[in-house]
Amino acid sequence: MLTIDVEKTGDVAVVRCVGRIVRGAGIRTLRDAVLSEKNVRIVVIDLSDVETLDAGGLTALLSLQQWARNRNVQLKLVNPSHFVNEVLTRTGLNRVFDISKFEHALFVLSARDCHHARYAAA
After folding, report:
1. Which residues contact 63 (CB under 8 A, 6 or more apart)?
2. Which one, of 63, 73, 114, lies nearest residue 93 by Cα?
3. How far is the CA of 12 from the CAs of 4, 56, 111, 115, in angstroms?
4. What's phi and psi for 66, nearest 5 deg?
5. Rounded CA gap, 81 and 23, in Å?
6. Cα distance between residue 76 and residue 42, in whole Å
7. Among 40, 44, 76, 121, which residue's beta carbon has the most beta carbons within 10 A?
8. Which of 59, 107, 98 is closest to 76 using CA atoms?
9. Can you give the pLDDT at residue 26?
10. What pLDDT is attached to residue 101?
């Protein structure tokens, strides 16, 4: 199961993922959550609580990166869990994505005027 919380401040959306980014409903949930954010300049995907990421999940992240690039939106992966970091490193995708620590995105989370939405997949 994948649960997603989205916090938006101005033109920055932080998408916090909890659970498994695997083929099926989880991927659709992540994709829908990101694509539903309108008028964003930066999308930050927090992967700190992601337990599992399969090939379908990697493909979804690559697809979201292409979507962002086509719209001049920056897509950043933040604080990947140990497992996710290992998968990204072994596949070489750690050199493809913009990956950083969560602390760099804290300013977004501390903003006062933010929109909050929750998504879940079975």
Report:
1. 31
2. 63
3. 16, 26, 11, 10
4. -65, -40
5. 19
6. 8
7. 44
8. 98
9. 86
10. 73
Q: Residue ranges of the chain with pLDDT lower than 70?
A: 102-122
Q: What is the pLDDT of residue 117?
A: 62
Residue 101 tokens read as 């620590």
For the chain, domains (ranges, CATH) are 2-121 (3.30.750.24)
Output the pLDDT for position 9: 87
Q: Which two tokens stand for residue 86?
A: 């290992």
Tokens 């962002």, located at residue:
68
- Residue 90 CA to residue 46 CA, distance in Å, equals 20
